[in-house]
Amino acid sequence: MLWQSSVHSTLWQKYLDYTNDTTAGDIDTTGYAIEAGYFLTGESLKWKKGYTSGITPKSKYGAWQIAARFENMEIDEISGNATSGDEADKFTLGLNYYPTKNTFDVELRQNY
Fold this sequence. Notes:
It holds the Pfam family Porin_O_P. This protein has 112 residues and is mainly beta. The protein has strands at residues 2-4, 9-22, 25-39, 47-48, 51-52, 63-79, 82-98, 106-111.
């Protein structure tokens, strides 16, 4: 799912739900991610039929975008009456630089 506003920002969402049936039991995997970005220099992504055609910087010095993403994944193994599982979270902050038209992309990111 994608949301884009007129204030030069984007918001992405993803969701995963998968079950693997094995002879020893089921393995359930669920996860999601949400990402948001804002162009500091006023650009916006151009979309056509669900695909982006890139970014055209308004300046000869390129376009700058700040971005943040949160991801979660949980894996549960169900064997008989017992359930065991693991879960992981990831948070990413980023500063993206697009030096020329349709450059995807030169990125500086710090992950936490």
